[in-house]
Amino acid sequence: MKNIETALVHGGRAGTRTYGYVNPKLVRGSTVLYPSMEAKHEVARHGLEQVDIYGLYGTETHFALERVVAEIEGGTNCQVVGSGLAALTVPLLSYLRAGDHLLVPDSVYGPTRTFCDGILRRYGVATDYYDPMITEPAIRAMLRPNTRVLFTESPGSHTFEVQDIPMLARVGHAAGVKIFMDNTWGILNFQPFKHGVDVSIQALTKYVGGHSDIILGAVTVNTAEDWAWLRNGAKELGAYASPDDCWLALRGARTLHVRLQAQAQAGLRVAQWFKAQPEVARVLHPALPGCPGHEFYLRDFTGACGLFGIVFQPEFSAHSVVTMIDALKLFGIGASWGGYESLVLPTTGTIRRSAGTGVYEGEMARFHIGLENTDDLIADLQQGLATLRAN
């Protein structure tokens, strides 16, 4: 791979010495016309390659974005789909079959859990949830002869546990199990295939899009075998992404490195500020000591992003936290993240089925730090904490 900054600028483009516009063109369409039947048969012989066969299977716009995502993830092939949730469901539906067993961390993104407990259960796939900080003997004990996928999400949603991905991959591979990972938080800062992951999942809605105006997902693999079942599964499921969103994601990717770097620095500064506030019992930022799996973050990650959580002292009620959030002027109340704007969301009541490190006393909130001036954000949070104390 080139240095990441260079790869983001030049990936998916025709080249700097090619006549034409800087950005790849936006291609919308369904039907592809051929000059002859011989030409149609020739295109069909390309099989799994990214070629224009029919709009549903991708256009030049899709393929350009897929090349960029595959490169920054360190993989060989990428399938772009219509949402981050579709990036989770398409590979699971493509790989699993009735009678299979799936392991998922208890800290997983809520819609992933809903999908496992809903559609997968109805289709005969059993799911067990494990403590994200599980030990090697414990994860070995949870594997069954019919376990086909060990799903990971690192850091975990809302509680930010950093998993020991190399250990989980080693144990899973020894049992013939595929390792899936939701790597959205670690975009640019965690190389999944170097740590044993087989399938890496991204919500491109977040930092790649970067402007809170698209819905998009991507699934990246690193072997021909994995690409075959993923690509065929995506075709069978009719997985598709808007070419307009793909074009916007390509544009967002060009500035991803500088935006992510700035937001990571700002996020760490705000998290450190929270750590010094008496109203806060715990800061859940993977780059800070005290976050579960911090040692794995130091070993495996090259940086962070602007998303983290906090746990308030037990004496503060849910009403007090809501009053504080309502008092903030610069933080929007929204469920997404990765855009240029700062966001906050109360996260108390996150479902857990294991009594692991992801269960805390005290109300919780998740913060995403945007591109605003950090001093302005801290000043806003200071007046918000004053409201918290008054309630």
Q: Can you tell me about this structure?
A:
This protein is an alpha/beta fold. The chain folds into two domains: 4-254, Aspartate Aminotransferase, domain 2; 256-390, Aspartate Aminotransferase, domain 1 (Alpha-Beta Complex). Helices cover 39% and strands 15% of the residues. It is built from 13 helices and twelve strands. It has helices spanning 4-10, 37-44, 60-73, 84-95, 110-122, 136-142, 165-174, 224-237, 243-254, 256-275, 294-300, 318-327, 374-390, and strands at residues 77-81, 101-105, 126-130, 147-153, 178-182, 199-202, 217-221, 280-284, 307-312, 332-333, 343-346, 364-368. The chain has a seven-stranded mixed beta sheet with strand order 1-7-6-5-4-2-3, with helices on both faces. Strand 2 (101-105), helix 5 and strand 3 (126-130) form a beta-alpha-beta unit. Helix 4 (84-95) runs parallel beside helix 5 (110-122). The longest helix is centred in the C-terminal third of the chain and has 20 residues, at 256-275. The radius of gyration is 22 Å and the shape is globular. The mean pLDDT is 94.
